[in-house]
Amino acid sequence: MAQVQSISTAPQHVDVLIIGAGLSGIGAAHHLQTDSPKKTYAILEGRDAIGGTWDLFRYPGIRSDSDMYTLGYNFRPWTEAKAIADGPSILKYVRDTASEGGIDKHIRYRHMVKRASWSTPDALWTVEAERGDTGETVRFTCSFLFLCGGYYSYESGYTPDFPGMERFKGRIAHPQKWTPDIDHAGKRVVVIGSGATAVTLVPEMAKTAEHVTMLQRSPTYIVSRPAEDRGANRLRRFLPAKMAYGITRWKNVLFGMFFYRMARKKPEAVKQRLIKMAADQLPADFDVATHLTPKYNPWDQRVCLVPDADMFQALRNKSADIVTDEIETFTETGLKLKSGKELAADLIVTATGLRLEVWNGLEVSVDGRRIDPAKTLSYKGMMYSDVPNFASSFGYTNASWTLKCDLTCAYVCRLLNYMDKTGLRQATPRNTDPTIQEEPWLDFSSGYVQRSIAVFPKQGSKTPWKLYQNYARDIMALRWGKVKDGVMEFSNPKGAAKKAEPARIAEAAE
Length: 510
Prior knowledge:
Elements: E1 12-19, H1 23-35, E2 41-44, H2 53-56, H3 68-71, H4 87-100, E3 107-108, E4 111-119, E5 124-131, E6 137-147, E7 171-173, E8 188-192, H5 196-205, E9 211-216, E10 222-225, H6 230-238, H7 241-265, H8 267-279, H9 288-291, E11 304-307, H10 310-316, E12 320-324, E13 327-330, E14 334-337, E15 342-344, E16 347-350, E17 363-366, E18 369-370, E19 378-379, E20 383-384, E21 390-392, H11 401-422, E22 424-429, E23 438-440, H12 447-450, E24 458-460, H13 471-480, E25 488-493, H14 502-509
Parallel strand pairs: 1-2, 1-6, 2-3, 4-17, 6-21, 7-16, 8-9, 8-16, 9-12, 10-11
Antiparallel strand pairs: 4-5, 5-6, 13-14, 14-15, 17-18, 19-20, 22-25, 23-24
């Protein structure tokens, strides 16, 4: 007999509902407590733990692929010695932030959000979530909905449908579903992929495996950086932690902006410099042209960062190698490549990417009309055309995730405070400029982006709809720019008659 799902009929209300208790969600809660302290809030987390990405991924060597002085929060200094930090250290940082601020008391675990519907007359979102422990559907209402659940599906990663996978007698594992029983010690390992996950896995597994091969269709830019920032560690000895953190943070931000600008302005020169830096770490007979020379320009995809040249060290000592080829088929004992070469393996790791997920997989409707994300324009990289009181936290492609998230969280608080001050209940980005042209949300050639970009919101051809991927520019727009900018429509005053038309309410508010 089929189980009947129960539905809670009494919705619980908060001013702001945050989706996700990872790096972004905990940061959003802190900003609310600091900048909009009168607002009530709750965090709905689909899993049973704080941490998001840093709790989900458990593969060997899991670490940040950017420095913690920019990946860390602007309000909480990173004080560990390593700037390129391991996953458990980052997870502890996020959890300590939550517990020290009392944020953890606001989290509802095992609440997987499914639907959200906006009512203009009520100026409320009604959000339905499914409880993972009971199967019950519970309802929440909120005045503002803030998505902080990241950009990819936690259910599964992306693995191409390689021919013959069922024939392989060893184990096939995706990094997103890593479990403690996956043993690589003394084994022949093939890691399929060449992105950040692959270059993290290969040197770590090579420490105990018989041999590790990174199998790639095409090369990626790989850059070494010291795991410890000696300058930052010295500053902390002489300056207060927050001051030292701020100085290092801005040093790294400015260097990152300079590097990105040079890559865009002089791509060939930067390309040759990165390739030479990699070649200098390797023996003279290593085939850099085949294995470490990408076909694309720097920052058309993310540049892979390796701490203390660990990837190059594994290549030098022959505990790992790179094969650039394509898979023809899996076999019983490994992989047969299109070149005819065969790779023997006991364990194959498919570091082949993520499955992107728009709006945390949420079904969104406004006044009974289902919203198609792909038909919306992204406002300042955080809100969406014609969707009221709704924001998402999304980081940079060319810099640390948290830099943009901190700015987004602060801007949401500015919006909330402005609405309180003016007695208006609704903030809706409206595009009334007929010259705005739609562009893909992300100008990125990575496979995981191109597979899903069609279903994501679009960006516009100019401000405030364009994503410039520029931290300094976003500071001016989000921290100092006018909230009432002629594009953000404030409407729906408190006490308005429920049957009043939104257009008339907007006129009255002006």
